[in-house]
Design brief:
With about 280 residues, the chain is of the alpha/beta class. It is built from 9 helices and 7 strands, in the order H-H-E-H-E-H-E-E-H-E-H-H-E-H-H-E. The protein has a 7-stranded mixed beta sheet, with helices on both faces. The protein is globular and about 50 Å long. The protein starts with 20 loop residues before the first helix and ends in a 6-residue tail after the last strand.
Length: about 280
Amino acid sequence: MPSRPDAPPVPPPPREGGPSMLDLVRLSAETVFPPGGEDLYRRIAQLTELAPQNEVLDAACGRGVSTLYLARTFGVSGVGVDSDRVLVQEAYSRARDAEMDGRITFETAALDDLPFKDGTFDVAIGEIGLAASADPARAVAELARVTRPHGCVVLIQLIWTGHVDPTRREILVRHLGARPMILVEWKQLLRDAGVVDLTVEDWSDAPSPFRPTAGGGAPFPDFSEIFTLRERIAILFRAWRRWGWGGVKGAVLREREIHRLLTRERVLGLSMIKGTKWPVTPP
């Protein structure tokens, strides 16, 4: 089990063009559950048959909200990993405050070069941020590598559901802070990594703090729908300290324009893909 992150939090390099939507949400002082909400993670627990004896890896864990939810609700132990040291430090503090730092720990690491031995975890979960800061193929292969034979690999990822030309696609990627792929691409990456018996569920319309009501819109709604005015001001102030006013202004203007695109054209969805790590037969 990795040790506590004693190193002082060092902010990552500023994102080119200012903060993404995911960056802004992560700067909130409020606890914001990832897209899909608690219902999605309860479903993951059901599909993977989570039990207290299980060791779980949560990759791209961010502030550790879903990691700690699984530990608190299902009694599992495990590790949350993210490439952002600031978020990892916050997740560790959250675990300590909840008196769960004995069962759940957090580590800063590259998501496509995980610091764990082969077959360490019973369940490995790849969150939305997995493809934002890592090569998706290598990241999925790493999730499979550190999962024990017959263990479960789960991806929670944004999916392109409509045609988007390459230029607009890159604008959306920068806005979201995550890199969606089409469903067949994610499934192929899992198969290439030795993950079989794939189960896919569409969670695009699940209510969550990212979408307060079911139906319409996309997994990332308008910024004003997530937070109160006071919360938005606090978030933008924290963003200003990291990116400056130019980056914050650009992010807000981009957010309004892209939200209209996502709402009108329905080009983005959210899928959960679960599979089983197939044991490798020695030659």
